[in-house]
Amino acid sequence: MRRPGHPLSPDATGAPAGGPPVALVAGGPAVVEELRRDGVDRGAPVALALDAAAGVGVATATRRLAVPAAAADPVAVVEGVERALRPRWVWWDAGTAARLVAAGVRVATCWDLAAVDRLLHGGWRVDPAQVWARAHGLPVDEAPSGPPDLWSVAADDEAGGPDGAGGPGGPVRRDGHLKATWVGGGWAAGPDRLAAWAAAALAVAERQRAQLDDLGRPAAAAVARSESTAELLCAELAADGLPVDRAEAERIVAGVVGPRARTEAEAAAQRARRDAEVLRHVPGAPVDLRSPGQVRSLLRRVGIEVADTRAWRLEALRDRHPVVEALLAWRKAERIATTYGYGWLDRHLGADGRLRGEWTASDGAAGRMTATAGLHNLPAELRGAVAAEPGHVFVRADLGQIEPRVLAAVSGDRALAAATATDDLYAPVARGLGVDRESAKVAMLGAMYGQTTGRGAQVLRRLEAAYPVAMAYLAAGDEAGRMGRDVRTHGGRLVRLGAGDECRLDEREARRRAAARGRYGRNALVQGAAAELFKMWAVTVRARVAPLGARIVLCLHDELLVHAPAERGDEVARVVAGCLDEAAGRWAPGTDVRFVVDVRVVRRWSEVRG
After folding, report:
1. Residue 458's pLDDT is what?
2. What CATH number should be reported for the domain holding residue 339?
3. Can you give the pTM of this predicted structure?
4. Last residue of a domain, one of 491, 508, 530
C-alpha cells in the first residue's frame, strides 16, 4: 500500500504524485527561458541530475525539464543556467559537484542532500536510498542497499506498471522507499528519468529544510548551506591541487633521508644509517626503533621509564639523555622517508606542479574537513616546498584561539565572551584565575579535552568559578557521552555517542569506556562547532575572492591558504579577514564574541612562523 500523505508516490503519469509531467526541451537557452518563466532567480532552488550519455534533468516546485544529450552538452546546459540565473542547485551528493568541476564548470551555491543528511543524522556513509528514507521517516533498514538483485527488482515491480519514467513506474516503490533499480543507476536511463530523479531530490530538500527548522537552532539552515557548499569547495580543492616546487621538495627530502635510492639495498643502507645515529648513544644489543616496546626497553637502559613512546611525552624528556633528542630526530626522518618521501611525490605531485588528494567536507564524527595524500598532515619541514606559482602569492590566514572563542559563543558565557575582546584571550583569563598565562591556556584546553589530572586540572576549579556557564556546557557534553546519549552541535550536527553493547565488559573497562566517551562528548560540542564556523568562513572566502582571480588551495584545520595574483595579494588579504566577521554573523547572529585571524601575504608557506 502507498503510505498516506506520501508526496512522491508514483501516479499514472510516472512522475511523483502531484508533480507536472516532464517537458523535453532542445537546449540550454530553452531551459533558462522556462526557468525564468517559472520565477527562478538568484538563489532559488533548482534540482539537478545529469549524465554525460543521457542528458540533464532539472526540477522546480512547478516544472520538470529534460534535455537529451543528443540535443546539447549536459554540462554546457548547467553552465548556461548558472551564468544566467545563479540558482542554488540541489543534488543528491558531491558526485555531481565533482563532475561539473572536472568539466570546468564552477557553480556558486548548492544544497547537497548527502551533506545535509550527515548534519541531521550523523555518520558519514550515505546513499540516496538512505537519505530518502530518513527524510521521509521510513525505516532505513528497509531501504534498498547494494546492486539490484532479483528480490529488489521484484519489489520495484510491485509499484505497478512498466519500469519507465513515462509510465506508472516512477522512482518510488509502493512502500514509499526508492526503487533499487533507480538507486543502482536506473535514474540515468534517459532524460525523462533524470528530470524525475531531480524532482525526487527537490522533495528531499524540502523535507530536510523542515527537519532543520524543527531543531530550533537559528544557525542550522545557514550551516546546512555552508556544509553543502563546502562539498563544492572539496571538489575544487581536489581538482586544483596545492602548488609545490618539486625541485625544492626533493632537495628537502634528500637533506633528511639522502638521495633517491636506486635499489632496495641502497634504501636499506639509508635506514641503517638513520638507525645508527640513535643507537650510538646506547651501545649494546640491537634494537628495532620501529617497535615501541623495544624503544621503551632502550630508554630503560639509560634510566628513562615511560608509559609509551609518543612524541609529546619524549619531548618533555629531551634533557634527560642525548638519545631522546636523537630519537625525536630519527622519527622526523623516518616519517619523511616512509610517508612523505620520493614515492609520495611520485604518486601525488602532478607534472603541473600541483599536489592532489581527495577531500571530504565532513569526517563523519564532529564534522571536520579531511584530505588524503597527506595534505592534512604535511610535515613542517616540507612547507618550504609549498610555493606560489610565478606571478602569484599565498594569502595565509589562521584563526586565533578558535576553540575557546567558539566555547564562549555556543555556551553563552558572558564572562568568557568578554575575554575574547583581546587578541590574546588567555591573558585576561590568566588574570581572572590568578595564574600565569601558560597555566590558564593548559587549563582551558584541558577543560575542553577532558583533562582531569595534571597541571590543567589543578586550575579547573578556578575555571568553574570564573566561567560557570561555559564549564556547565562542557559538563553536559561529558555527561551525555558517559550515558551514551548523542549530542548536537551549535549548528545542529548530530554527533553519535552511543554506548553500544557493553554488558559483557567488566566494571573497570566499562568505566574506562564511559570516561572516554565523556571526554569525546565535551570536545565534540566545541570541535564540531568550530568546524562549522571554519567551513562557513571558508565558503565565504571562496565566494568573495573568486572575482579577484584567487582560489583556496588548502584548508588545514583552522587555516586557509589562498592562491592569488601577486598584484591582488593585499586586497585578497583584506577580503579574507573581512569574511570572518561575515561568517561569524551568520553562524552566531548577535554574538558579542570576537573572533580573530592572522593574515599574511607570502610566497612560500614556510615564510609563516608559529
Report:
1. 74
2. 1.20.1060.10
3. 0.90
4. 530
